[in-house]
Amino acid sequence: MATFDVQLKESLPHLWRYGFSLTRAHHQTDDLVQDTVERGILKRSLWDALHPLRPWLMKIELNIFRDKYRAKARAQEVAMEDDFDIGADDRTIEARSELRAVMKRMNDLPDEQRQPLLLVSIGGLSYAQAAEVLDVPIGTIMSRISRARAFLNKEAAPQVPGIRSAT
Amino acid sequence: MTDYRNIEEKISAYLDNQMSEADRAAFEVEMDGNPELVARIERWSATEQLFASSIPTPSDAHLDALLSASTAANTNRWPGLRIAAMLVVFAFGGVGGYGLSQFTTNPQTTIIVQATMGATNSHRVFAAEKRHAVEVTADETEHLQTWLADRMGREMTVPNLSAFGLTFLGGRMLPFDDRAAAQYMYETADGKRVTLFMTRLDQDENTDVQVLEDQGLTSLRWQSGEWVFILTAPLEQQQLAPMQVEVRDTLL
């Protein structure tokens, strides 16, 4: 396992992209990543060196986001696409409208489904690592991610056969 | 075997590369002869790539600046940690960064970064396939060339890379943005897959070869007029470079 410093450096782009998927704004992402790195360095003695660092840092990042940023973001009610640079590139009108639709659905996802999806697909974590970050069983991660994807693709949410507790 | 509760969980685990070898093999058998399932998997994957393409990737320099600011803040607050913070700053000097940011340090349009992501994502998805690695196999090369030339609007001769020990496996069409892209796949003697991704961009430009290294994959990207070519493989840059020359000469 690489050292703390090397892993921290390697985690940075993932922390940033995951942070952006949470905050949806450049400067807030910078602040969030900086806070995460600061807190990670302060708490480095608590890190278990046998485990990869990135999930641990992402857990810190998510906690900071929840404590500090989410209330603010909700209050502002910034439309997702405003900060997503859709206008800045040379996508065609069709591609833009398709992207808007995906983002709108991403926005409409319940948080419990969006979080595991972002951790895995943007943050690059495994299901086991995402389960650790969110403190839920791995089966719950799998179920929530699959329902999130079905929703993003405008499909009916998957039905879980048999009697099981709701996850 | 993992206990998947429905097909959606299987698709997700497949896309996220979270299946065991046995589960993956079984699922690929399930996909075989089920074009609706394959189409659904491709749709789910495309949706996610679309979303991912809208999240910017900061440059190495930007991330280093964030890091320095963080470590400086810590140093001030906790004098005892100064040594640790200095070590962090020091360690960062020599360590390679995240691949894509090498591209974003130059002024690039979003679309070329998207094309690179599309190429590496497609490489990861299809190079991992055994039964469905290509859409049209090498024994129908002529048909493949004609078909792709029609869709891409350019000559699509398959470069011959046998001099480098590569076997041509075939190719497929891929969606990219609002247009078509093509992927050719080759294989080395020891089973490593090499893919060539090609698509049209909107701006006309000629560039040198740029190198991307990301999580075990090396990509060489160059633009020739409106066309961008991205050669991707789990090989060293030096091994790929002569192949790139051959590809470029064939497809100029």
TrEMBL record, chain A:
* Domain RNA polymerase sigma factor 70 region 4 type, residue spans: 100-152
Recorded GO molecular functions are:
DNA binding; sigma factor activity
Q: Which UniProt keywords apply?
A: Sigma factor, Transcription, Transcription regulation
Renumbered to this chain, the signal peptide range is none
Gene3D superfamilies on file: 1.10.1740.10, Winged helix-like DNA-binding domain superfamily/Winged helix DNA-binding domain
Taxonomically, which superkingdom? Bacteria
Q: Which InterPro entries match?
A: PhyR_sigma2, RNA_pol_sigma-70-like, RNA_pol_sigma-70_dom, RNA_pol_sigma70_r4_t2, RNA_pol_sigma_r2, RNA_pol_sigma_r3/r4-like, WH-like_DNA-bd_sf
Name all PhyR sigma2 domain ranges.
Answer: 9-60
Residues crossing the lipid bilayer are none
Asked if the record carries the keyword Transcription, the reply is yes
Q: Which GO terms describe its biological process?
A: DNA-templated transcription initiation
The UniProt family comment states: Belongs to the sigma-70 factor family. ECF subfamily.
**This protein's name:** RNA polymerase sigma factor
From TrEMBL, chain B:
- Highest taxon above the source species: Bacteria
The keyword Transmembrane helix belongs to this UniProt entry's keyword annotation: yes
Do the record's keywords include Membrane?
yes
Q: So where does this one cross the membrane?
A: 83-101
Arranged from A to Z, the UniProt key words for this protein are:
Membrane, Transmembrane, Transmembrane helix
Q: What is this protein called?
A: Anti-sigma factor
What is the native source organism of this protein?
A: Cognatishimia activa
